[in-house]
Design brief:
It contains six helices and six strands. It is of the alpha/beta class. The longest helix has 14 residues, at about 100-110. The protein is globular, with a radius of gyration of 16 Å.
Length: about 140
């Protein structure tokens, strides 16, 4: 059974690379996309369904994962709504426009037992993964 992925917002520049990366994953279905800007036309051909309103998309679809790639304030709203509907969420950095929204997002993730991920570039860097692995093994000592 494929993992259903929906994208809410296309205004964050990293969304296009993320779409390529997710589309290349076996078992991932690009189910739906929502955006109220002309950017929707650029993404239309990749998705089974398109929406101009992310709320309507979340109400109509049941995605397993939601990529929140709108502006920081809206991405926080999207993340909370998606988490509350049972989806795991990846949000572009920064996590939120302010601490209050970040705390609300974290609380929603904890309450729903869903994953909330912030897409920081270092997350995908193989050198960082190797460094962390070596540190966990105890390969480094302070002198």
């Amino acid at each position: 059974m494929p993992v259903k992925l929906a994208v809410a917002g296309l205004t964050h520049g990293h969304v296009w690379d993320l779409l390529e990366q997710w589309a290349a994953q076996p078992g991932v279905e690009l189910t739906a996309v929502a955006d109220a800007t002309p950017l929707l036309e650029r993404a239309r051909s990749r998705f089974q369904r398109v929406y101009t309103d992310w709320r309507a998309m979340l109400n109509a679809e049941q995605p397993d994962i939601v990529l929140a790639c709108a502006d920081n304030r809206t991405s926080a709203e999207i993340a909370i709504a998606a988490l509350q509907r049972g989806a795991h969420v990846m949000v572009e950095k920064p996590m939120a426009a302010d601490l209050k929204d970040a705390e609300r997002m974290l609380h929603a993730a904890q309450q729903t037992d869903r994953l909330l991920m912030i897409n920081f570039p270092t997350r995908w860097n193989p050198a960082i993964h190797t460094l962390l692995e070596r540190a966990r093994r105890g390969d480094f000592t302070l002198q």
